[in-house]
Amino acid sequence: MAGENLPISYQPLVSVVMPAYNASEFIAEAIKSVLSQTYQNFELIVIDDGSVDTTGAIVSELIEKYTSTISYHYQNNSGAGIARNTGITHSLGDLICFIDADDIMVPDHILRQVDFMERHSNVGLVFCDYRNFNEGAFYLESHFQTCPQLLLQLKAKKELILEDPCLILAQENFGIAGTLLFRKSMLQYEPCFEPTLRVCEDFHFYYRLARHSSVGIVNEVGMLRRLHENNTSSDPTKMLSDGIYSRSLLRDNEQDPRVCTHLNRYIAGCQMGLARYYANHSHYLRAMQKDWQALSGNPCWSQAVTAWKGIARTILMAMGLKKVGDNGANA
């Protein structure tokens, strides 16, 4: 592939930032996947976000055993976004990427993205594809295969430059923090992750970066994302609440009305999701409030129908005329 023999002058230092919280079960595998990269001009910065398990001891052992390119920093528990901000402040590289402490980098992940950036000097950030896995098996589809708007532009191409990336991102989140690599110079526009977000902070960060640059897409799986019961995404109310908050922050500063429409649809979808959750847990007033917010905030026909159905469902449940399991109505 292109870039396998990049000349020394075209091998910029890459700072790999790894936030970690009580990550003792998986962090050794994550670190070894970084150390095994075919692109070797990198530094790995581990930010221990207040772990109370043996995360720090495992990292210290790996530093002693394998390499001096790993640095370790401990901070009080503050969330992954602030941990990444700490990692950014310690970074020395011209390029920055991330990996969560329970995920795995494919061996040529960094190489492919560095190669892309070196061939496209006008691109400020680039994403690769990823595949979810759990204890049972790998998912059949990669993430890009679940993103119809992105696939429509990719077709069969190996790579792509999106000139209007926020329009697609507002419709479908084609990335995660671990699939992003960006130029450190982009921090002049958006210097950090939003510290008030505990969930969706990665989307909020790279969406803001995408406002200032075209976005590269490498149509190859570069990250394996581990799903388990301790994932932040396993908390539905937190995911939905921060989904609303993160998109609301973006919408309030968005100049493109087309993008605002898609952000409003996402917000309404999260509000209706929260309404269903609250109704299923007998919080009927809160459920009706969320459905009403969805209805008033995004009064398009399809979502208005869904919101009214949600309100009717909640009323019937409050009256004891409908149960959670009726007609597949689980949360």
Protein described:
- By secondary structure, this protein is of the alpha/beta class.
- It has two domains: 9-228, Alpha-Beta Complex (Spore Coat Polysaccharide Biosynthesis Protein SpsA, Chain A), CATH 3.90.550.10; 235-317.
- It has eleven helices and nine strands.
- It has helices at 27-35, 55-65, 80-90, 109-119, 148-154, 165-169, 201-210, 236-251, 257-280, 284-297, 301-318; strands spanning 14-20, 42-49, 70-75, 95-98, 104-105, 123-133, 159-162, 180-183, 214-226.
- Strands 1, 2, 3, 4, 5, 6, 7, 8 and 9 form a nine-stranded mixed sheet that branches.
- Strand 2, helix 2 (55-65) and strand 3 (70-75) form a beta-alpha-beta unit.
- The protein is globular and about 65 Å long.
Summarize the structure.
This protein folds into two domains: 9-228, Spore Coat Polysaccharide Biosynthesis Protein SpsA, Chain A (Alpha-Beta Complex); 235-317. It is 41% helix and 18% strand. The chain has helices at residues 27-35, 55-65, 80-90, 109-119, 148-154, 165-169, 201-210, 236-251, 257-280, 284-297, 301-318; strands at residues 14-20, 42-49, 70-75, 95-98, 104-105, 123-133, 159-162, 180-183, 214-226.
